[in-house]
Amino acid sequence: MRGATHARWAACATVVALATAGCGGGGGDGGGGNAGVLSSSWGDPQNPLEPANTNEVQGGKVLDMIFRGLKRYDAKTGAAQNMLAEKIDTPDSQNFTITVKDGWKFSNGEAVTAKSFVDAWNYGASLKNKQKNAYFFGYIEGYDKVHPSSGAQSADTLSGLKATGTDTFTVKLNQKFSTFPDTLGYAAFSPLPSAFFSDHAAWLQKPVGNGPYTVDSYTKGSQLSLRKWDAYPGQDKARNDGVDLKVYTDNNTAYTDLLAGNLDLVDDVPAAQLKNAKSDLGGRYINTPAGIIQTIAFPFYDKKWDSSGAQKVRQGLSMAINRKQITDTIFQKTRTPASDWTSPVLGKDGGFQDGLCGASCEYDPAKAKQLVQEGGGLPGGQVKLTYNADTGSHKEWIDAVCNSINNALSNDKACVGNPVGTFADFRKQIDQHKMPGPFRAGWQMDYPLIQNFLQPLYYTNASSNDGKWSNKDFDKLVDRANAETDRAKAVQLFQQAEGVVRDNMAAIPLWYQNGSAGYSERLSDVALNQFSVPVYNEIKVS
Amino acid sequence: MGRYVIRRLLQMIPVFIGATLLIFLMVNVMGDPIAGLCGDKQCDPATAAQLRQEYNLDKPVWQQYLTYMGKVFTGDFGTAFNGQPVTELMASSFPVTIRLTVVAILFEIVIGISLGVVTGLRRGRPVDTGVLLLTLVVISVPTFVTGLLLQLLLGVEWGWIRPSVSPDATFGELIVPGLVLASVSLAYVTRLTRTSIAENRRSDYVRTAVAKGLPRRRVITRHLLRNSLIPVITFIGTDIGALMGGAIVTERIFNIHGVGFQLYQGIVRQNTQTVVGFVTILVLVFLVANLLVDLLYAVLDPRIRYA
Predict the structure, then answer these.
(1) Are residues B152 and A256, on separate chains, in Cβ contact within 8 Å?
(2) Which of residues 46-75 of A touch B (CB under 8 A)?
């Protein structure tokens, strides 16, 4: 027993030694520690923090602070504005010449040149690097060589990508794509310093970028401390001294910490607290639209849903859903009933058209019943609405949608939820085209362009066309829009294509999702951008 | 004694292999984890195939298991999806959970046993009834209620503690989470000790000790308590394993980045390597704790010998 006691003390001593060694060198502790530094809630990123490998919001948050790309989306309007790009020229919407602005540097002193971009994009596209955002480079010529859909790659670099000078490079696309320059604000298109390639492991431990913040210390799984980079050459310098991102397992705890004054910013107010958030936080609560739309998709690979009458059934189902009631009661108005297939964050000029869906998205139980009957009744007599039950509290709203449909069709068994245990399994069943009926679909935009809400989802065999919907008219309109050099005309063509989606009810739009955040009294000028990520560099700390 | 320990250690091998195999199969049944890595989109098939190859997911399950076990014996527990080696995750989370468990066990021993002794000696008195009632309440309230309530009262309303634990997770910060984690077991320890003490109080050796004229204090600590502790030690021993693995709820509430947090994340992301690695270690902890408990019996009760 005595021996055991000694061992325990020895273990404790080692533990304490490890802990102190681990925290040595860390910055302020947040929550009143360091005057100009704010603390913010964070989730452990799912993937390594590489620009072309980060496809979720937690990792995206960090990249947004430590990187600046050729373009940057205005946090208010969503318009893509030149950041590092001096100019992007194209004679034909297919060949682009990009000039990088002079004077930009990475925080380790290395200059940002055309090569920084070319190398980064080649790295992201190359199959052997297993980057999850590789498909973003799919429009560039030679992508099929460096990233074949099966077999080994036959080239290491994209043939359509060439550095023609220190500051200029050319991009050749494999199709006409007029709004290509506007996609370049996405994090996957960030430049990378040579250190990323020469010492990759060290870079991942402490990423180096060209944004307004630098990584001060990174303890994986618990905290990432970012500090203002004083020598940042851009216009959008940080207005605070830094940000401490703290990993929370449960956003309820983060919210409690905010109330207790230990945390400055929570950018994901838990659903259970939405009711209280306004009274708890007074005016320090924001709820703004994000580029996320929730829809119900259909398995068009199933003949029953692809028949001529099924279109009326789909319209009928859409009209049987009381969107307003569900968003008001279940989501506490953090979602807005959808009336088109894009998102309000695009703005009118960007292609968002309030009410494009028209009567088909209005709640009208009588008409709904009539349409379903005219369409030959529900395929198989029942709608099985499939969703994943593990995350995102989907069960509540799926049940509400089904209740709404059942009431409208006066049939208790018209619609039932069909839960799938895990998200991975849900995705697997979708990918294998085994959906027994309509299923939950969500789309978070990659960049604020109407093209991103339509082409990946509804174009024949597009990457995220999970229901395998196919329509020649739609495809033609999208092709024409992509070839159109005039932005306004392109948007108009995309809207016409969206009209085809509406007439066929290729998917039922449900609601637009908002981003919500709460913050402490120390902060001011807190806002969320269209990706529901706080605009950290604008935040002022008092 | 030495042979007994060796025999027990050898018995651990089949238990260890069986347990890891079961966990491995269970995580595998949950389906293809790669499909969940790309958000609400389909993973690009070429990249997904590469990732499957990297994590050996393209091979049959038995082969995956053998490869995995082969690596485990060389100390390589694989890599999590975020690119971190699982051993690194262990190095950061086990110290935290061990500290939390130590705090919880200390609460169980100090408070649980003292309350048990006091109530066992004063059976039927108001103290006894009061403590019994209290333990009943503690046992019937789920941990997450106790945890959230204490967090709200002490952390937000009164401001005595921070509602969440910092990444360093020092002993001081872990007192309240430790108490919450220990609460239910603590109540059981109290009740076990109380019954055991009350029973042994009437035994012959206690009467002899009293008749010999030993001081009351010595009778209670050397004779009564020592013999009454055997069921309690068994309980606490098995509880070590349960506390380490079962801290998921408490660790979530207080945002402690320990084993529970890693396990939860591993399960949600279907990360076979993380889940199997952590559970394997937990199985080992459980086995070793049980062995120690058995050896402690001999210390407590001279009649028990291991040959």
Answers:
(1) yes
(2) 46-48, 55-56
- Closest by alpha carbon to B116, among B60, B183, B194, B59? B194
Say which residue the tokens 């506490």 belong to: A332
Q: Which of A57, A68, A70 is nearest to A212 (CA)?
A: A68
- Give Rg (Cα) of chain B: 24
Give Cα separations from B158 to A252, B37, B161, B178, B303 (angstroms).
19, 42, 8, 19, 52
CB-facing half-sphere around the CA of B146: CA atoms within 13 A: 18
- Whether A513 shows a pLDDT value over 80: the answer reads yes
Interchain contact, B81 vs A148, CB within 8 Å? no
Cβ-contact A507, A457 below 8 angstroms: yes
B268·A135 Cβ contact <8 A:
no
pLDDT for residue A333: 84
Of B113, B104, B116, give the one whose Cα is nearest residue B147. Answer: B104
ipTM of the complex: 0.82
Residue A303: Cβ-neighbour burial (10 angstroms; 0-12, 13-18, 19+): exposed
d(CA A221, CA A149): 33
- pTM for the full predicted model: 0.82
Q: Write out pLDDT tens, residues B158-173.
A: 888 888 888 788 888 8
The predicted structure's pLDDT at residue B60: 85
CB-closest option in A45, A150, A253 to B82: A45
Which secondary structure element, helix H or strand E, spans residue A498, and what is its range?
Answer: helix A487-504
Is residue B240 within 8 A of residue B222, CB to CB? The reply is no
pLDDT at A469: 92
Residues of A in contact with B168 (CB under 8 A): 19, 22-23
pLDDT of A125 reads 93
In this structure, are residues A206 and A509 in contact, taking their beta carbons and an 8 Å threshold? no
Q: Say yes or no for a CB contact (<8 Å) between A47 and B167.
A: no
Number of Cβ pairs closer than 8 Å across A and B?
Answer: 174
Residues of chain B contacting residue A248, judged by C-beta atoms under 8 Å apart: 164, 255
Contact A56 B39 (CB under 8 A): yes
Q: Which residues 11-70 of B are in CB contact (within 8 Å) with A? A: 30-47, 49-51, 54
Residue-averaged pLDDT of chain B: 86
- Give B22 to chain A, closest Cα distance, Å: 19
- Which residues numbered 71-100 in B keep a CB inside 8 Å of some CB on A? 81-84, 88-89, 91-93, 95, 98-99
What's the token pair of residue A276?
């209280």
Cβ contacts of residue A498 below 8 Å, gap of 6+?
A: A340, A341, A342, A351, A353, A356, A450, A454
Beta bridge partners of A336: A512
| Across A319-332, average pLDDT | 91
Cross-strand bridge partners of residue A296: A440, A508
A403-452 residue pLDDT tens: 999 999 998 889 999 998 878 788 888 888 888 899 999 898 888 889 99
